[in-house]
Amino acid sequence: MFLEVADLSIVSSTGTQRTSDGIYRALDIYLDKHRHLTESEREKVCRVLDCNKLSGEACEHASRNERLPLRVVVHMLFVVQLKLREEVKAEMDKLVLHNCNCHVNKNKVHPR
């Protein structure tokens, strides 16, 4: 039943910028109430989670959540690392562009 509801939620938000935080919260509650699930059963339930759409706060919580299967936590941390790398690269590109523009403006000859 849980997987059906989660799948419906995913389908309804496909193509939107919505986060998966609500799905993560529901998943966390489900795993808390069903502690008897095996690791493979928890992995199956967690397949509905899109780590790319989790907010920073949800990622931080998930990284410390002992109810999540280890494979899911590792995947989520990998996604966070890739996002961080992209953000750092974008900031570095901005700095390089800014520095290039400063050098170009210094060398321009202004008419009198």
Secondary-structure element pattern, one letter each: HHHHH
Mean pLDDT level:
82
Poorly predicted residue ranges: none
Structural class estimated from helices and strands: mainly alpha
Largest sheet properties = none
What is the total tally of β strands? 0
The amount of helix comes to over 70%
Mass-distribution shape: elongated
Number of helices: 5
Taking the alpha carbons of the first and last residues, their distance comes to 77 Å
Strand content: under 5%
Q: Oligomeric status of the shown chains?
A: single chain
Rg calculated over all Cα atoms: 21 Å
Domain NPH3: 1-83
Keywords: Ubl conjugation pathway
InterPro entries: NPH3/RPT2-like, NPH3_dom
Protein name: NPH3 domain-containing protein
Account of the 3D structure:
With 112 residues, the chain is mainly α. It has five helices and no strands. α4 crosses α5. The longest helix is centred in the C-terminal third of the chain and has 38 residues. It comes from Castilleja foliolosa. InterPro entries: NPH3/RPT2-like, NPH3_dom. Belongs to the NPH3 family.
